[in-house]
Amino acid sequence: MSIADKLHDVRETIRAASLRSGRAGDAVRLVLVTKTIEPERVREAIRAGQTDLGENKVQEGRRKAEALAGEPVRWAMIGHLQSNKVKDVLRFAGEVQSLDRLSLARALEKRLQFLGRGLDVLVQVNTSNEASKFGLAPADVPGFLKELTAFDALRPKGFMTLARFTPDEEEVRRCFRILRQIRDHALRDAPQGEVLSELSMGMSGDYGIAIEEGATVVRVGQAVFGPRALPDSHYWPGAPGTEAADRTR
């Protein structure tokens, strides 16, 4: 199957899952994960109508964005972001889905103020409670959201998580439900209120489940581009370097 055909199938799966969850067929945004994928293959997806692209590593994302300059796309940083990479990530990304600490918020704010622009951000939460994963502990989210009110250039839009790497569907759903509950509480109690509606959760192996549990954004790569040569452990600390674990994006 071509990239365009696979992309069509993913969109249809998203649409069906959205309808099953009682929402409109276009209620969920697809971020196509392009890590390790050459620009010309990404361009095939763009030609098929894909506009939201996601990268895990800053240098790879910057190179790819430069190669695809002029294309009608919006880039999201979806991997762990080091504060010393802020300048580079803001050269291409219009969204950061992995905001997980105040030091990063400060670094982003400082650079954004210099650039005179704002940035959409999602707060990353470690819903699986794994030491190997980045993200805030669920209990720390309310305080973090209050702290974010000091940063004028950051526009918090919601939350992101990675479910536990396991074939246990109920455990995966549990991780997604925790994030949904965090979002629902934040809509009611956080200073940002109703703007915190986004839930970025679900990847190539579990995005249908994530949508059923309330995802508004899914991050999918391998379902469109096929298996990667490098295991997920190359991109996500703690992810097993196995074919089963490489279902993740």
UniProtKB/TrEMBL annotation:
Cofactor(s), names only, from the UniProt record: pyridoxal 5'-phosphate
GO MF terms held by the record: pyridoxal phosphate binding
The keyword Translocase is annotated on this UniProt entry: no
Alphabetical UniProt keywords: Pyridoxal phosphate
Record domain Alanine racemase N-terminal: where: 27-227
PTM annotation (N6-(pyridoxal phosphate)lysine): residues: 35
Annotated Pfam families: Ala_racemase_N (PF01168)
Family from the record: Belongs to the pyridoxal phosphate-binding protein YggS/PROSC family.
Function: Pyridoxal 5'-phosphate (PLP)-binding protein, which is involved in PLP homeostasis.
The protein, known as: Pyridoxal phosphate homeostasis protein
